[in-house]
């Protein structure tokens, strides 16, 4: 059955690129509503934006969605991942700014708040997207693909030579709370040189060592170091789940990325949905429902934050 949250959630945090305090509310929604964002600070035009792959307008540094009126919300991927990982299909997110708060650079706080608010089951079946044919995309050194599978599996490989990140590779079956246990608390990461450049361009204004893993060569500047030895590739997988959730329904398929990111995942979805024979949408049966990322999740599934 489709789900929403039982109780509204209110949060305050800083926007990573916006650099100011952001107030956010996550509200329950009815069956078939999907995930929508509302910019409550915009009152002179349409301020609702559907969280869909075809509304993505920018993928530099983060994922940004925009409606036909030019109203946008950026840095949605960590929240989208938390919603998917907790099995939430319907919600309205209200913001007073053009960006979701970064919190600690992971999905952990979002997931904790969602599970604390409770999950309400709605009287409508879940529809899922099943990949029927392999779809591949290559962009210079970046390669992404999605292939048929009876569950969602995410595999990712990254390579940052000469840094504390190095080469990392991981693959996970995302069924039954794996996101909460394995990926949820993994933070975004960057090199100090990237931070210096972004801030010189007026970007990354809310960035600090409390909401990202920052490395300088073989040194980790963030206090406490990594939460996992392979935290960086885990975060890329977290991002991938958030971006795949913009398909508008859970996906059954094996997603794989080599040096991938927001742009590649979005282009892969666009390519998939431009190929009608490569996928199908069907009403989820009980056996399939038990293999979805948010099936049967509980608060004890959440990993501990270092």
What's the number of helices?
7
The level-1 CATH class of the largest domain: Alpha Beta
Helices and strands: which structural class? alpha+beta
Total separate domains: 2
Give the helix proportion (percent range). 10-25%
Strand content range: 25-35%
Largest sheet: 7 strands, mixed
Overall geometric form: globular
Mean pLDDT: 92
From the N-terminal CA to the C-terminal CA, the straight-line distance is 34 Å
* CATH fold-level name of the largest domain: lpxc deacetylase, domain 1
Total strands: 20
Stretches with pLDDT under 50, minimum 5 residues:
none
Question: Topology as H/E string?
Answer: EEEEEEEEHEHEEEEEEHEHEEHEHEH
Radius of gyration: 18 Å
Which second-level CATH architecture of the largest domain applies?
A: 2-Layer Sandwich
CATH superfamily of the largest domain: lpxc deacetylase, domain 2
Quickly list its features:
lpxc deacetylase, domain 1, 21% helix, 306 residues, Ribosomal Protein S5, domain 2, 2 domains, 7-stranded mixed β-sheet, 5-stranded mixed β-sheet
Written overview of the protein:
- Helix 5 packs parallel to helix 6.
- A hairpin with a 5-residue loop joins strand 14 and strand 15.
- This protein has 2 domains: 119 residues, Ribosomal Protein S5, domain 2 (2-Layer Sandwich); 174 residues, lpxc deacetylase, domain 1 (2-Layer Sandwich), CATH 3.30.1700.
- The strands form 5 sheets. Strands 11, 12, 13, 14, 15, 19 and 20 form a 7-stranded mixed beta sheet that branches. A 5-stranded mixed beta sheet has the order 2-3-9-4-5.
- The mean pLDDT is 92.
- The protein is built from 7 helices and 20 strands.
- It is globular.
